[in-house]
């Protein structure tokens, strides 16, 4: 007796594998998108924490700023480069708030610097119409589209 598979059995197996693969591919795409969105949340929290720490250092008098400023940094780059610590002038100490600027994980343009992947909002502009200015009060994603939660990435 010959052992093996008939052509019909092979076609049935291929059809079953194709159906399973067609169901798995969209789920893998959603999982990849969810991972990018979680990375976006983490990056936004990290930058927000650094901006708040900078503002707190200004309020404590550790960073010298003119009185007409709101107390936020003029650029994101300053959070990485550091600023002189006014409380420890003799040691020429510096205050650092970030090791590096996180990149927007949804940004598709590899030519942009990490700082350029974020939209920046000045203290004077509203949340509905964010505009850049003399200080970085907040950041937002420049990525088009809507998250899995139904909220546009720009509003996260």
Describe the structure.
The protein has 2 helices and 4 strands; from the N terminus they run H-H-E-E-E-E. The strands form 2 sheets. It has a two-stranded antiparallel ribbon. It is elongated, with a radius of gyration of 25 Å. With 156 residues, the protein is mainly alpha-helical. The mean pLDDT is 90. It has a domain of 95 residues.
Rg is 25 Å
Structural class, from secondary structure content? mainly alpha
SSE pattern: HHEEEE
Per DSSP, the total helix count is 2
**Overall strand count:** 4
What is the typical, i.e. mean, pLDDT? 90
Distance between the termini: 67 Å
- Low confidence ranges: none
How would a crystallographer describe the biggest sheet?
Answer: 2 strands, antiparallel
Strand content: 5-15%
The shape, in one word, is elongated
Helix % is: 25-40%
Spatial strand order of the main sheet: 1-2
Protein name: Type II secretion system protein
Pfam families: N_methyl
